[in-house]
Amino acid sequence: SCVGLRKLLQGLSFSVKHYSKHNHLQTVCLYSKINPPKCHILDCSGSTFTHRTVPPGSILPWRFFSCKEGTKIPSKRKQDTSITSELLYKNLLKLEQENWNVISARYNAMTKRIKEKLEELHNKYIFNSGSPRIRFGENVYFEENGCLFLSKANDADEGNVDILFSTKDLGFSDAFIQRIRISPDQRYMAISLKSENSEEATCVIMKLGHFPVMEEVIPSVFSFEWATNDVLYYTSQKNLKCQNVFMTTFTNQKHTKLVYTEQDARFFVDIYCTKDRRFLTINSNSKTTSEVWLVDCRHPFKLPALVKARTKGVIYHVEHRNDELYILTTYGEPAEYKLMKAPVASSGMENWQLVYALEKKTKLVDLEMFSDHCIMFLKNAGHLYLNVISFVSHSVQSIKLPTWACEFELESHPEHTTSTCYFQLTSPVHPPKRFAYSFKENNLIEQAVQEVPIIMNCHTTRLLAKSKDETLVPITVFHNMNSKELHRKPLLVHVYGAYGIDLNMSFQEEKLMLIEEGWILAYCHVRGGGELGLSWHKDGCQHNKLKGLHDLKACIMLLHELGFSQPKYTALVAASAGGVLAGSLCNTDPELIRAMALQAPFVDVLNTMMKTHLPLTIEEQEEWGNPLADEKCMKYIKSYCPYQNIKPQCYPSVFITAYENDQRVPLTGVLQYVQKLRKAALDHASRTSKKGNWIPNIILDIQANGSHCDSSWEDSLNE
């Protein structure tokens, strides 16, 4: 279920670029395997893989406003203004690029050393892990460097491998394979191909055999699944939105028809295939509400059947087993996820029966369905757990996982009848380590010792900071066990706090490098994120956004009080929507940090939420509010918006990475933020003109390649 429900679970921010990675909940699935030369991760869903691009430090579901303007023809006066604005924009962009070229030259020696170290770590910890392989009957499919390979499952000779085709053969030399779906009889393979500079993917259908043939090319496709051997369902993507579902056939009489259209702009549509391949689900989700339609794979031409009409505030997702729907939903009190079930023939809410309810402040990360069991991957108080539900004995077994682990990476299980569930555990400083849970033995098995051992010289500490309203906020801290005088060590603080999405705590080479060089890493799990369940997100969105800011301040102050570094050695890092809280702290409490690094930051909430012509503004209102309809909301957003609250004062140094092709955070807004911040810093310096007065570096690096925190390995290495 690539993995299962994870996409929905991460907050249902379906405007994210979660290419179906987690194929049904809203996040991304595995941060596990990286194949040279591009840092693309293979997301495996049953008989499929999906590639995701994961640059160092990324979370993926970022902030998603498009910079595309409306298509109305302007008047002559407006046209002149537009030309002038475009000219100013180009001049400003040119000046920033020239400024970057001058500034970056100062750091050549440092960047050379860092790049060499990161490349060494990348080769040591990532390339050893190999490519994920998908077993489909007796065949095994895998991808390396844009080539698709086929081998036999029981073939002892690893060299006996057939190459099916490559992306270059298909005429897509600059694209990477993002997702693969194989038809049940293995006659067809559907592949989505995406370049790093585009949000939209192209779906290519290959007819397999001794000489694979390109059967069809479908542009601008988001998700797709095979209903039968020759019937494919897919969603189309336009302007960062998915609202139409199509069915296309590969029989003698080929035809394509529209089968579903979503009319509400707040909703995003994707397709998922249940683990037993009995149903395709058409899932229409906003950030707070969802609706599911079923396509019976035995009768793919019948109209989809509604499971339950959407109810405001109720999220649900569907799996299937033995003629019963298993429904993961927020229905009922408390408004956290519960697993319920209902007969396929009578799926109305009145027939939903509770199977299992999560404990308070528990985060459901993923769910995987098997023939006789269901495994829930959970986070509670910073620790990871497995809950194994047996449908035979009607029992639940809870298994606490190693304390160093911070993130799950679930592997593909194409056969729902399998007796073992494989997954990997990782942390920012621990490379993925493979584990298995055996249903037959009823126990957890650590796989054979790998070439790369678990890092032993890094200490993991979990803290709780008391926020302004007495709420306890979790912090995860990593530091080298051999470090002395921690109050003199540099500290890198991470924050996100939006969309109900957790901070990314998967392995990243640069984090391990920092630990080896004596840095302290702190991850602040503030409200607005999803680390403590749905209520944790709700308590930090819309009119509660300032709570996330108060949480962040409390976390940094506690770290300093406990002797983890001090303000003059502290840096704050954030990406996309994390820029809201980081930028706000920079305005309200600049004395707490010495530097701030932002990647594609969302820093002008107010002006962006006022622009309804942007394709994602309406659906984003569930996260930030609607300032056009509510004056109180406008004033509240203005009170914390980073751009709106810049003032002359002593700011920390700031380094920002932005992307020319970013459709989600327009480059114009980042440029304006940088200009205003520089002016405020210089105004403060000129007013105070004391001897030795410090003027911060405010640096903008504009990347020509990549799009919204989405770069190749080489480009992210340069960053």
From TrEMBL:
GO MF annotation terms: serine-type endopeptidase activity
Pfam entry (one): Peptidase_S9_N
GO BP annotation list: proteolysis
Superkingdom: Eukaryota
Domain Peptidase S9A N-terminal: from-to ranges: 177-443
Keyword check for Nuclease: no
SUPFAM superfamilies, alphabetized: alpha/beta-Hydrolases, Peptidase/esterase 'gauge' domain
Presence of keyword Transcription: no
GO CC terms: cytoskeleton; cytosol; Golgi apparatus
InterPro entries according to UniProt: AB_hydrolase_fold, Pept_S9A_N, Peptidase_S9_cat, Peptidase_S9A, Serine_Peptidase_S9A
Keywords from the named record: Cytoplasm, Hydrolase, Protease, Serine protease
Family from the record: Belongs to the peptidase S9A family.
Protein's job: Serine peptidase whose precise substrate specificity remains unclear. Does not cleave peptides after a arginine or lysine residue. Regulates trans-Golgi network morphology and sorting by regulating the membrane binding of the AP-1 complex. May play a role in the regulation of synaptic vesicle exocytosis.
Protein name per its UniProtKB record: Prolyl endopeptidase
Source organism of this protein record: Herpetotheres cachinnans
Gene this chain is encoded by: Prepl
